[in-house]
Amino acid sequence: MKESILSELLNRRLSLLGANLPLLAQCLHGIERECLRVTSEGRLAQTPHPEALGSALTNEQITTDYSESLLEFITPALADPAEVLDNLEQIHRFVYTKLGDEYLWSPSMPCALPAEEDIPIAEYGTSNIGKLKHVYRKGLALRYGRTMQCIAGIHYNFSLPEALWPLLREAEGSPLDNRDYQSSAYIALIRNFRRYSWLLMYLFGASPTLDKGFLRGHPHQLDELDADTLYLPYATSLRMSDLGYQSNAQAGLTPCYNDLASYTDSLRKAVGTPYPPYVEVGTHVDGDWVQLNTNILQIENEYYSNIRPKRVTYTGERPIQALTSRGVQYVEVRCLDINPFLPVGIDLTEARFLDAFLLFCALEASPQFENGECGQCTDNFLTVVKEGRRPGLELQREGQAVTLKAWATELIGRIGPLADLLDRVHGGNAHAEALAEQQAKVDDAALTPSAQVLARMTEHNESFLEFSLRQSQVHAERLREQPLSPDQQQRFERIARESLVEQSRLEQEEVGDFDLFVGAYQASILAISN
């Protein structure tokens, strides 16, 4: 590829990295995978979170997300993505030893759901923090509906080595201190991610269809694939589209990531600014809590975004407090669909491409957003999730039309040197191969997961629900066929038992009234000043 395509800044940074290659082996990766528990008929499981999996409040690897039926599996952050995926697969294998005749639902879009009020909200026990998590979810139900909260995804966490930032800061003569330079570099990564994340939706989007019942009779712009299935012919990820639903409260909340302070400030204001329709409902109905507050956001995590700047929090600390006091530590990519053809929803090829892509976003020049570029990024993203496989599809780049195919090919070419660097670090050519596999999808849209889903459904003459249940059964069989070693099984059993003991301890030692606890929790964010 031509060097001229690379920015001068990226070239300088690549040279610096080339001289400090072992550093790149210290990038950290972690995965969070959400999935619904379903019955053998493919309906939402109405059973409580299995006690044998431990406490959803205190088990750090197996918890629940929105619903009692929506499991979330969390890996530790590790240097080798192959180890991360192995850990994720071990969690799946362990869970299947405790699920009885239930299954883990294979795609992102939900199974057949019961009536809205019969979707169970996750329970976390009687401690104040457990009750806070439950009331927060009641607030989500009130604001967005329970149905929308049953969509599942993959979150990919990624950090560059801490020792890299001072080297870059010094080489570039930045006046910022190490912490602020690192934060500004992660925010720059996020800006580039916003520019280019449409590419991830084309390559990895896997939700072109959904069950008709999901929309609950709401008006929509989807086509009928069969009597029970809706779709868009060229969609890549209906999960990431608006689906006719939009949060009016969040509509005006568009942090555009020009610096960390403006990002945290906009979220802090949203958590402290009343929203009239929520005020009208109040925090209590008939004496029971129904939402944590009546503001635009109950807590900062309610803000729906495709990527978040993150910092590991201390006990009792809020995400914005951690970011404000100690800066950005890693990013959480939140727009990835679960691939229904893969037992754990993601594989090593995807992880390796993501690593090269995120490294490119971090090291390539990332000017601040201006002249409506932020809105253009959003428009490109939404165009690709609804029409990404349309032949000749055009996107907007700096106010000019460019075909998705041409831009994607150019981007993959620009990511190439980062993949080469990662291969030099790890040996072999797995990252370059991962890029070649993605270029093949750009050349032939039939190879994309979204096209493959439609092709498989057509081939088997299946509805979305029939296809999804069959995939769920295939994965269950595969995961159950290869049980954990006795040592691995015992480790998960021990973690589950210890988490139940820890939840019980929290509940027994709880002091203080829940209402006061919520008040103090709300006040903690209002006290932060940038």
TrEMBL record:
GO molecular function: glutamate-cysteine ligase activity
Gene3D superfamilies xref list: 3.30.590.20
EC number(s) recorded for this UniProt protein: 6.3.2.2
Domain Glutamate--cysteine ligase, chain residue ranges per copy: 21-384
Presence of keyword Cell membrane: no
Originating organism: Pseudomonas farsensis
Protein known as: Glutamate--cysteine ligase
Catalytic activity: L-cysteine + L-glutamate + ATP = gamma-L-glutamyl-L-cysteine + ADP + phosphate + H(+)
Protein's pathway: Sulfur metabolism; glutathione biosynthesis; glutathione from L-cysteine and L-glutamate: step 1/2
EC main group: ligase
Gene: gshA
Family assignment from sequence similarity: Belongs to the glutamate--cysteine ligase type 1 family. Type 1 subfamily.
Presence of keyword Nucleotidyltransferase: no
